[in-house]
Design a protein that fits this description.
Two copies of one chain form a homodimer. With about 240 residues, chain A is α+β, with helices and mostly antiparallel strands. The first copy, chain A, has six helices and twelve strands. Chain A has two domains: about 170 residues, Nucleoside Triphosphate Pyrophosphohydrolase (Alpha-Beta Complex), CATH 3.90.79.10; about 55 residues, Orthogonal Bundle (Arc Repressor Mutant, subunit A). Chains A and B meet through strand 2, helix 1 and strand 6 of A and strand 2, helix 1 and strand 6 of B. Chain A binds a DNA duplex (27 and 27 nucleotides) through helix 6.
Chain lengths: ~240, ~240
DNA sequence: ACAAAAGTGTTCAGCCTACACCCATGG
DNA sequence: CCATGGGTGTAGGCTGAACACTTTTGT
């Protein structure tokens, strides 16, 4: 857990925050990493330093929470409504004693109206050991179709990311970090069905994927379950 | 021309600006509205008021420059690099005497690092009589493939919008405000070719468009040029 | 009548779809 | 040897590309 002792508001772009929807694939479901403060959950987020690009700020959030650099990270959307003024909500969860021990030059730093720039990242859940920061009390991976109560409009942000994922996989087919480096066609097939929330013909799927010429066949996998052993594939370099 | 006498920096979200690429279709080319300050051009833009959503700020810019409300306006992208610090450039064009007569409580208001949220709008050029604001000296519609020297990274923003237009017309086919309410298929064909920068088979085009069932055929157009008179169409309500 | 412009038809290839069938493996 | 699951084949339908043909109209 990171130790922060003071915040100088002038180091950051005011009233601008960055939230990152960190998603992975586990147990046949798309999951996203959420943090708990009090009785509700929220997205990992942060602020943009004066000397930092917005993109870098998002990378920092991702790195802080996952320990990993250079993951698949893309811009999602701007959340900039005027009624996006969650003063009461923020004040509620800012009653945290951890916060009281931190020096902040600007007492309203947290409670102003913010414009949020959201990003989304795809990661390998098994490779990640999330870290708590100074305000959040717990982390957990949630199935994006079974989200808990969340602070502010963070549920909207997650759902936006979840929909974007559909467009992405339709265009790119590939898995980024949602599958291990080597994977089987049935696994890829399963992933596509879960993301698109629709059944896809197995035969057509295999042929369409191989026709893209993006995948490379490797030796067969030894299996323990009954039935024919599938080939392994990887994304061509 | 709008008269501004003073600026209170606290009324706006700091270090956040909104630029709008206003595009139209005229003389067989996609054009965009630019403003001149000194010897270079820039996009119409503005800031986000504290009580205003980002979207509303973009609408204001559009309305201020075109006099029209409710035009087709969509989010484009974030421009948020850390080296996006155009202090020298801003200072150069802020030597404008018009600015000296305006009271600003924060002398650095214009010259800080900004994160820009860009939007793009599609308008009917012939319906618009652009207005100058307090800093810009001249407005002009430029063919997006023949842009002049521009301030900061505004040329990148225009090119991003120009590319986005391709995706949009591929998905939606329709014209928004780029053609008059009633138009001919040859005109629509021409527009698609210009936007996509590629020749499209005339026959295929007509059939594909009619197959979408988005268009409604109206009585024929009386023409003056030689050749058969085309039908008029409009987008179905 | 002719050229130019708009609208329609025809053919062919390729792709998507659905389903059937064949292979490999563990119990 | 059969149930299970992976891989491949095929017939039918749809769609898109290219090009030919017909219709309309000004000169």
């Amino acid at each position: 857990m990171k130790r922060i002792t003071s915040i100088n508001s002038k180091d950051f772009l005011p009233q601008l925050s960055v939230d990152v929807v960190i998603m992975g694939y586990q147990d046949g479901a798309i999951k996203c990493l959420l943090l708990r403060i009090k009785d509700k959950w929220l997205l990992p987020g942060g602020y943009v330093e004066q000397k930092q690009s917005v993109e870098e700020a998002a990378e920092s959030v991702l790195e802080l929470r996952t320990g990993l650099k250079g993951q698949h990270l893309k811009f999602l959307a701007v959340f900039g409504s005027a009624d996006r003024d969650f003063k009461k909500e923020r004040e509620a969860f800012l009653e945290n004693p951890a916060l009281k021990s931190i020096e902040i030059d600007d007492p309203d730093f947290f409670s102003r109206r913010y414009v949020t720039l959201s990003y989304y990242a795809l990661v390998d859940i098994d490779k990640i050991h999330p870290e708590l920061s100074f305000l959040d009390e717990e982390w957990q991976w949630f199935d994006v179709s079974k989200l808990p109560d969340m602070w502010m409009d963070h549920k909207d942000i997650v759902m936006t990311a979840r929909e974007r994922l559909k467009d992405d996989i339709r265009q790119e087919h590939i898995t980024h970090n949602l599958l291990p480096e080597q994977f089987t066609m049935p696994a890829l097939h399963q992933l596509h069905q879960v993301i698109l929330e629709t059944p896809i013909d197995r035969s057509r799927f295999q042929k369409t994927m191989l026709a893209t010429d993006k995948f490379e066949r490797l030796p067969k996998l030894k299996k323990d379950s009954p039935g024919r052993s599938p080939y392994l594939y990887r994304v061509k370099p």
